[in-house]
């Protein structure tokens, strides 16, 4: 069933602009379309498209408890500009307390397994809650962000969360994203001007050096595929 739905969506929207596709989805799946934002550059483009077109799409974010102050700053500016609700999901308090009591605050540096455990508690579990009961999950994924994402399509079925993803900026380049943000005066995280491209939790994110891969700034002490479990690709 999911495969046929994805194929149908790809066919029906193949000639649509991003705005037209977002409006189509909101109409086709009323109250079942959600957009997850971490306030990165791609997400801010999508927030602008939803906000200025007043589309009935639910916007939410995950507050892991370890975000940069600069992320909270752009969160606040975004709320003021678009005057729309951004629902916040937090990790389970007991799970976080248990993790810190057993392993301390920096266990994620010790191993990939420990880091993924922290990501699961702070990000994946809250995301599961946020996506429950919805049909379409809009993301800011771009193909050039990592090798893992180079073979994605505009619509994908995510078996882990049992939901269809829409990746509207899939074929955009970073310069296209930056140009859109500047042209439309969209709030941005000030860390982007300091070499931060992909911004997550503060302890797990650094600026990248010229010529480095976009994902090099995430979990820089690891040689893994640099994913946290939110996206399998």
From TrEMBL:
Cofactor(s), names only, from the UniProt record: [4Fe-4S] cluster
Domain of life: Bacteria
Ranges where the Phosphoadenosine phosphosulphate reductase domain occurs: 32-207
Signal peptide: none
Record's keyword terms, sorted: Cytoplasm, Iron, Iron-sulfur, Metal-binding, Oxidoreductase
EC number(s) reported in the record: 1.8.4.10
Pfam families, A to Z: PAPS_reduct
Active site: 228 (nucleophile)
Pathway where this protein functions: Sulfur metabolism; hydrogen sulfide biosynthesis; sulfite from sulfate
Catalytic activity from the UniProt record: [thioredoxin]-disulfide + sulfite + AMP + 2 H(+) = adenosine 5'-phosphosulfate + [thioredoxin]-dithiol
Annotated InterPro entries: APS_reductase, PAPS/APS_Rdtase, PAPS_reduct_dom, Rossmann-like_a/b/a_fold
Keyword presence, Magnesium: no
Main localization (coarse): cytoplasm
Residues holding [4Fe-4S] cluster: 118-119, 201, 204
Localization: Cytoplasm
CDD domains for the chain: PAPS_reductase (cd23945)
Family the UniProt entry places it in: Belongs to the PAPS reductase family. CysH subfamily.
Physiological role: Catalyzes the formation of sulfite from adenosine 5'-phosphosulfate (APS) using thioredoxin as an electron donor.
Protein name in UniProt: Adenosine 5'-phosphosulfate reductase
Organism, scientific name: Flavobacterium ammonificans
């Amino acid at each position: 069933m999911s495969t046929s739905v994805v194929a149908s969506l790809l066919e029906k929207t193949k000639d649509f602009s991003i705005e037209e596709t977002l409006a189509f989805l909101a109409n086709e799946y009323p109250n079942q379309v959600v957009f997850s934002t971490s306030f990165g550059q791609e997400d801010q483009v999508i927030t602008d498209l939803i906000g200025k077109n007043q589309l009935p799409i639910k916007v939410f974010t995950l507050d892991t408890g370890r975000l940069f102050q600069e992320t909270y700053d752009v969160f606040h500016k975004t709320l003021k500009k678009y005057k729309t609700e951004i629902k916040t999901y937090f990790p389970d308090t007991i799970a976080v307390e248990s993790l810190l009591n057993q392993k301390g605050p920096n266990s994620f540096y010790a191993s990939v397994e420990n880091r993924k455990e922290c990501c699961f508690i702070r990000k994946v579990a809250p995301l599961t809650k946020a996506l429950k009961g919805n049909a379409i999950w809009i993301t800011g994924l771009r193909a050039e962000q990592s090798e893992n994402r180079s073979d994605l399509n505009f619509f994908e079925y995510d078996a882990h969360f049992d939901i269809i993803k829409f990746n509207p900026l899939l074929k955009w380049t970073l310069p296209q994203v930056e140009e859109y943000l500047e042209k439309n005066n969209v709030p941005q995280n000030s860390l982007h001007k300091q070499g931060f491209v992909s911004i997550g939790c503060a302890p797990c994110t650094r600026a990248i050096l010229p010529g480095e891969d976009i994902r090099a700034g995430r979990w820089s002490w690891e040689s893994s595929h640099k994913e946290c479990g939110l996206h399998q690709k």
